[in-house]
Amino acid sequence: MTSQLRPRALGALTLATTLLGGLLTGLVGGLVGGAPATAAAPAARPEPGAFTGHAFDARCAPTQEEMDVWRTASPYSAVGIYLGGSTMACRPDPADPTSGQPHLDATWVARQRASGWRLLPLWVGPQASCSAYADRIDPAPAGAYAAAEAQGRAEAAAAVARARALGIPARSTLWYDLEGGFDVADTDCRRSALRFLSGWTEALHARGHRSGVYSSISAGIHALDNADHLSPGSYTMPDQVWFAWENDRADTVAAPRWVRAGSWAGERVHQYALDRTVTHGGVTLEIDLNYLELGGGSVARPAPKACGGVRLDRADYPALGPGRRGAVVRTAQCLLQQRGAYRGRVDGVLDRPVTAAVRRHQRSRDLPVSGRVDRRTWTSLLAAGSAPLLKEGSAGDAVRRVQRALNVATAADLRVTGVLDRATARWVRTYQRQVGVAVTGVVAGETWAALRRGRR
To answer: What does the pLDDT read at residue 1?
Structure first.
């Protein structure tokens, strides 16, 4: 395996943290934006669900304080966590029962789900028979590698039991971590690994879970895709794959020499950087970086109708003064009505009642009170409403409001899709630099406040 495809290190994790800064940042983040830590996560929501965006895995679960800080300060929306298994890095040391996974319990899982984190639960048991790990898959070809398949089924049963104990709901994806570094040209090694993973997948399906496999793109994932292509039906394929390929590209594009373009389309995670020391909000963790597109990716529901069908998405939001008429005035009237500043008819006429409503809104946002709908007023009106924490991959009407407001406040020409994609995140960072708030690409308290006040 080349240096670009080295297997994930399974050594002890070093967490270099600034705890005081983390605590303070977490408290501030909870006050200015994002889902509160006590908000209930839908009990039936499977993990990680349909999503496109950034994830990190730290092997050992970070502390609650670290997770709270990174929720609002980092671009990550998902986190990989080790549930267990014989080869798990975070196993307790018999000489020190407090080592291992001291933070991972049902309360930890519930709090992350409640605050909006998406979880990628990993199980690390026996490894390929031709690898150097102590616990290995049985390579005996007897009974079409029946012993290997039985091992896979047993590991799946153990993983499901652990997931249930932690409160991870049914239909969630459980990932088997098959480390790279084994020779896929070794027939018994490759076939026993494939039969093991087939047993893993079938046992998970029987227990109401989706199956995922993590491995090097050139080893386990390549072997799976090749087997599916050359001998379809011989093995039960996982629902999702997580491939390690250290190319520093945050995407889910796989090299075609290892994985066909259509294989697991919309059901991939790419681990693109390993063993990075990363700081957000004063909290430093050693992590691997991932980008995911699962469940078909993030999709926004259709935009709700506004004021009987008034169009809120416009190519331009020109300045409006008294006496102006037309569809763009109807847009302004509708926004004023939604914000509770106007109760008149949405008739496309900027008359005295509308002018008075504009002034009321301007006063409420500490804007210059002119009665004219200028660019600052447009920005404020378009951004007004709830202020949820938004990151790349977030979807919904709040994202539409941000996209519209950015189109007025900056030189952005964003398509209003309701999905905070990479282009939107770039313009969020541009806007944050423009108005002098922390440049994170995350729409949280300070950024929402700047948009609501029409800052440009």
So the answer is: 28
Sorting pLDDT into bands at 50, 70 and 90, what band is 181? confident
Q: Are strands 240-244 and 268-280 parallel, antiparallel or unpaired?
A: parallel
| Pick from 38-47, 261-270, 317-326: least confident | 38-47
Q: What is the DSSP letter of 5?
A: G
- Of 67, 59, 73, 61, nearest in space to 37 by CA: 67
Instruction: Check whether 436 has a pLDDT greater than 80.
Output: yes
∠ CA(112), CA(116), CA(119), 5° rounding?
Answer: 60
Angle at 33 between CA 29 and CA 35, to 5 degrees: 95
Check residue 317 and report its DSSP letter: -
Q: What CA–CA distance (Å, rounded) separates 147 from 27?
A: 52
- Strand residues in 334-431 grouped as ranges (E): none
Q: Is 117 helix (H, G, I), strand (E, B) or coil?
A: coil
Report the distance separating Cα 292 and Cα 280, nearest Å.
Answer: 20
Residue with tokens 């790279």: 180
3-state helix, strand, coil in the chain (%, to 5): 35, 15, 50
- Give this prediction's pTM: 0.87
Residue 3 DSSP label: G
**Tokens 């267990």 sit on residue:** 84
- Dihedral of CA 250/255/259/264: which sign? positive
Q: Residue 433 has what pLDDT?
A: 98
| Tokens at 377, concatenated | 């007023």
The string over 97-123, giving b where at least 16 C-beta atoms fall within 10 Å of a residue's C-beta and e elsewhere, is eeebbebbeeebbbbbbbbbbbbbbbb
**CA atoms of 183 and 107, how far apart (whole Å):** 40
The residue among 74, 22, 109 whose CA lies nearest residue 290 is 74
Half-sphere exposure of residue 341, counting CA atoms within 13 Å on the CB side?
25
| Mean pLDDT within 253-261 | 95
Q: What is the mean pLDDT of residues 174-203?
A: 96
